[in-house]
Amino acid sequence: MNDVARSALCERLLPQAIEAAARTYSPYSRFPVGAALLTHDGQVVLGCNVENGSYGLTNCAERSALFAAISQGHAPRSFKALLVFAPQVPVISPCGACRQVISELMEADCPVICCGSDPGSTRLWRVDELLPGAFAL
Questions:
Q1: Would you state the pLDDT for residue 11?
Q2: Which residues contribute to the annotated binding site?
Q3: What is the set of domains in the chain, with CATH numbers?
């Protein structure tokens, strides 16, 4: 992805991921994360982290956005891009569980843009770079 395309995606998705991060339910970690998922038809589906006292039941922003999109009728592997934002770190990185879900529900060449409080630290991955050797059926 060239810098112009990356910049255009960030301009479109970052404000929405910031909005999603403001909706988080994170009373335990106090670590808000928002995600904006671009669908094949140009819609943007938001997700935020939702925690639970039983940490294993917590859901990350990335998975929340992907699960919401699928529940709204978007087909798996039809997404165009995902942007993840966390305001409390210079740049965020998806956890292992999110990497596995992303690798199953998004195409290998889709961009995953990760950013945080330092705009110069934005990180861009392709899905297939996030989890080499991902479990697949």
A1: 93
A2: 49-55, 60, 95, 98
A3: 3-130 (3.40.140.10)
Q: Quick one: tokens of 32?
A: 């808000």
- Report, as residue numbers or ranges, the catalytic residues: 62
Residues annotated within a binding site for substrate = 49-55
Cα-to-chain-centroid distance, residue 67: 11
Model confidence, pTM: 0.95
Per-residue DSSP letters for 39-96? -TTS-EEEEE-B--SSGGG-B-HHHHHHHHHHHTTPPTT---EEEEE-TTSSS----H
Confidence band of 133 (pLDDT split at 50, 70, 90): confident
Average pLDDT, integer, range 96-106: 96
Going from the C-alpha of 1 to that of each of 43, 46, 100, 109, 120, the distances in angstroms are: 20, 23, 22, 10, 17
Mean pLDDT of the chain: 95
